[in-house]
């Protein structure tokens, strides 16, 4: 049975006030959030894997949304941390600014489930009104409710 995005959203893994001023800091902040909930082993190694993945190809999608991710042996199931930055975080070197960051750790064996999850996030964040609601959610519960209201979940 394929995994659904709704099964991966945890309000404890959502940071609505990302303090990072650059891409590396933002990824680190979200990895630390995963670690604080016991979702990932060896945060230093996972940060290195994320940076290596990012060096190959930017995970900035469009419209202020980035999807940093890595396939790894450091998780047993797909885990997601979400960060929001009102000011935006410079992403890559092309002048992109990410306001919504969906960091994903994927077990190496679950590539098809990963594609389903990323596809769902991409469809949700492509919707401008929904993206605006996510950017203005007052708290993690409201953010989650907005995500779950999306028809593509």
Computed Rg = 14 Å
Q: Helical content, roughly? A: 40-55%
Please indicate the count of domains: 1
Please outline the major beta sheet: 6 strands, mixed
* Helix segment tally: 5
- Give the low-confidence spans: none
Structural class: alpha/beta
Strand content: 15-25%
Instruction: Please report the distance between the alpha carbons of the first and last residues.
Output: 15 Å
CATH superfamily: Mannitol-specific EII, Chain A
Concise summary:
By secondary structure, the chain is of the alpha/beta class. The protein is built from five helices and six strands; from the N terminus they run E-H-H-E-E-E-E-E-H-H-H. Strands 1, 2, 3, 4, 5 and 6 form a six-stranded mixed β-sheet that branches.
What do you see in this structure?
There is one protein chain. This protein has 153 residues and is an alpha/beta fold. The chain has a single domain (5-148), classed as 3-Layer(aba) Sandwich (Mannitol-specific EII, Chain A), CATH 3.40.930. The protein has helices at residues 23-36, 43-56, 111-126, 128-136, 140-148; strands spanning 14-15, 60-62, 65-66, 69-72, 79-91, 96-107. Helix 1 runs antiparallel to helix 2 (43-56) and helix 4 runs antiparallel to helix 5. The chain is globular, with a radius of gyration of 14 Å. The chain starts with 13 loop residues before the first strand and ends in a 5-residue tail after the last helix.
